[in-house]
Amino acid sequence: MHEGAIAEGILSIALDYLKRNSGSVIGEVGLKLGELSGVEEYALQTAWTVVTRGTAAENAALVINRVPLVGRCHRCEREIPIGKDLREAAGLMEPEYGSRLMPYSFLCPVCDTPLEVISGREMQVDYLDID
Predict the structure, then answer these.
(1) Per-residue pLDDT tens listing for the chain (131 residues)
(2) Distance CA 32, CA 22 (A)
(3) Which of 22, 48, 70, 115 is the residue whose CA sits 20 to 30 A from 128?
């Protein structure tokens, strides 16, 4: 479970920030998490609860803001959402796939050119609320 290592890394960043700013407690940690990050939210939340025990972040909320997968077509210059929303709009959802298991298409639906991924891979601490 790599979510445990991720939670430890987030905690390390938060505690370092707390120390550098002479704080005493962490109230909230905001995290940007891209659709392609490969991180399971429930596992990360569980790991966060475990790794923060006995620390200044013990009661801190881990707020996860999901970042959608978006690609840019260099031929027609469109920014295209990749994934479930695009597939649903095009009527391409297939019942045998779950919403998270449906294969992605990285081709522009307008001109069939490969898309450059411009968002959806993020995994970063966005903000910290400390006292």
Answers:
(1) 599 999 999 999 999 999 999 999 999 999 999 988 989 999 999 999 999 999 999 999 999 999 999 999 999 998 988 875 555 545 554 544 444 444 577 888 888 888 899 999 999 999 999 99
(2) 25
(3) 70
User: How many C-beta neighbours within 10 Å does residue 90 have?
Assistant: 10
The pair of structure tokens assigned to 42 is 């429930």
β-partners of residue 80 are 71
CA distances from 121 to 34, 57, 66, 105 (A): 5, 26, 10, 16
Tokens representing 12?
């390390």
Which tokens belong to 52? 């923060």
pTM given for the model: 0.79
* Cα Dmax for the chain: 55
Distance CA 86, CA 80 (A): 8
How remote is the C-alpha of 48 from its chain's centroid? 15
Give the integer Cα–Cα distance in Å for 15 and 56.
7
